[in-house]
Amino acid sequence: MKVKVVTRILEANDRIAVENRRLFNDAGVYVINLMSAPGAGKTSFIEQTISEICRGGKKLYRKLSIGVIEGDIAGTDDAQRIERLGIPVVQINTGSACHLDANMVNEVIVDLPLNDLNLLIVENVGNLVCPAEFKIGEDMKAMILSITEGDDKPLKYPLMFQESSALILNKIDLLPYTNVDIEKIKKDSLSLNKSLKIFEVSCKTGEGIAEWIEWLQSLVT
Fold first, then answer.
1. What is the pTM of this model?
2. What is the per-residue pLDDT for 102?
3. Which CATH architecture best describes the domain 2-219?
């Protein structure tokens, strides 16, 4: 019975995700579902991406209009950080749910100036398991892994690596102070998903952010 119940939940979620995708496509918005464990640096990464694209970074990028949906169990700190950048942002507090689902996203779409956006970044709830199971109508799932989390995570949490199109290895400025084998992370990740695009970045120093943005802009029409 448990398997049947879970299947029904996912099927219902997928139906709403299809509707979300239609709304996003009609508005011409590219949507990223950004996932990670708590503390991996999702919000800092979003801030860096916005600052480089919208606020005159180190290179001249094609300007994109960006919106953000912030998902957290509680609190509004991350949304306030994004709002200070002058970016339209909506906060979703799940209460106890460990992920965002398609229905939660559907309910807040109306609160975004969707027709004015090129790119929507959805910061999912910090969790390495559940977010990968639920579609929200995104064009792409991407995940952030802080190298301080260790090099065993791909094989311990394979689904997220399998479902993601991009893996951002964050906090590489801390690599000299750890015993993490970054090559093992990349090798194990690619063994799970051969098409995974991997970026080594530091939100503190800005290293690797340019490569990420150049790739991202190639996807957003």
1. 0.93
2. 97
3. 3-Layer(aba) Sandwich (3.40)
